[in-house]
């Protein structure tokens, strides 16, 4: 199911990383339903192509571009590709991310630590910077960083992940100031959503007890916040962090 608000994104172009599945897929489809052309990126081209075909079936333009978000050169090529085809990016969603569970802080391996920081923070930093610079030179735009409520309430097992997302939160506030007034930069902080990531949770019943609303989010439930931040409905909102977590501790 894809949720939707009465939001008009006609004539806008969007780039969604990690748009092949999970929350990114829902946001990409919702933007297309609202009238936007949508570029979909993740590591596997065939997975992006499948989503792009669905978007084209809605009557929108779509691009499928493979890129590893931890690699700045691939991100630069991604931006060049979308700009080369469409001449503009109005909406960027820094969504791709990874959240491996680690046995303990002491047992965390350096390579995995570096990868988590690269995918969740280093890459989104580069992509936001490159896209924002072009937005400033053009008609402006909206950048949405997908963080996590884990950054607000870190728990053992995901501390490097929580730190990478806390860095993303700080990046949002800094870039909101750097690129205002033409570019708005905001964060969405999901709680626990039943995407592929959930398959790695060792104690789902225990996790449910920590959610006041008593259930995990369905992937389509991220869409309302994304459409709000992508559209002119949020024209005076920048540097914000919107929690979508069923009542889990929120940014304050
Ligand atoms: P998912 O695993 O279902 O999808 C992740 C997407 O990112 C996929 O398209 C995948 O191909 C892509 N991706 C992963 N690593 C990549 C890389 N190195 N380069 C390019 N693409 C890559 O995950 P999801 O649950 O949809 O999560 C989306 C975002 O939401 C992530 O940033 C995640 O940290 C965040 N988040 C999710 C939850 C949750 O409970 N699902 C909670 C908090 C935050």
UniProtKB/TrEMBL annotation:
GO molecular function: oxidoreductase activity, acting on the CH-OH group of donors, NAD or NADP as acceptor
InterPro entries named in the record: NAD(P)-bd_dom_sf, Sc_DH/Rdtase_CS, SDR_fam
Signal sequence segment: none
Record-linked PANTHER family: SHORT-CHAIN DEHYDROGENASES/REDUCTASES FAMILY MEMBER
Family from the record: Belongs to the short-chain dehydrogenases/reductases (SDR) family.
Name assigned to this protein: Short-chain dehydrogenase
